[in-house]
Specification:
- Helix content is 11%, strand content 56%.
- The protein has 1 helix and 9 strands; from the N terminus they run αβββββββββ.
- With 171 residues, the chain is mainly β.
- It is elongated and about 45 Å long.
Length: 171
């Protein structure tokens, strides 16, 4: 399963530059941030306490409103204790749509795509689909962002809702 996810993510990343060429020479946007995620229901696929981690994303503009992106997060479920910590890798491929501006400087966006939840050294996990909503506040050359990204983690026997909150900087 992880090979399939990596292959799909690589396909998005490799095909995106040709899509982005139609929008001119706009450089890719790189974002880094902190991530907190937790299962909404108590399941064996994911611990019932939150993970804290970091995430990086590369977004390639297709036009002024749409970007394709690939991201990867690494999180740790460490709130029980260090000896029982579970680590997880969470790759995602997504489409980001910039919403019309309202009053003020912030930019709102919606995103959706697919990914995976891959525990390191443990069983469980599986593919995921997600839809999210975010806010970016432009500064001078960077932006600060906050987003909520709920997902459905698809296991062999069950589907688990997961909610993630993220804060970071876009370069």
């Amino acid at each position: 399963m992880s090979r399939v996810l990596l292959t799909l993510a690589a396909g998005v990343c490799l095909s995106a530059p040709s899509l982005a060429q139609s929008y001119g020479s706009v450089p890719p946007r790189i974002g880094v941030g902190f991530d907190v995620a937790s299962a909404v229901l108590d399941q064996d696929l994911i611990p019932d306490f939150p993970s804290i981690g970091i995430r990086g994303r590369v977004a390639l503009p297709v036009n002024a409103d749409v970007s394709v992106a690939a991201s990867i997060g690494i999180g740790a479920h460490v709130f029980d204790d260090r000896s029982d910590a579970r680590y997880v890798v969470n790759p995602q491929a997504e489409v980001i749509v910039t919403l019309p501006r309202s009053e003020g400087r912030s930019v709102r966006y919606a995103m959706g795509g697919f990914g995976g939840y891959v525990p390191i050294g443990d069983g469980g996990g599986g593919p995921s689909v997600h839809l999210g909503y975010g806010w970016a506040i432009p500064l001078q050359e960077t932006s600060v962002f906050a987003e909520v990204n709920p997902a459905l983690l698809i296991g062999e026997d069950t589907v688990v809702p997961v909610i993630a909150g993220r804060l970071g900087v876009i370069f």
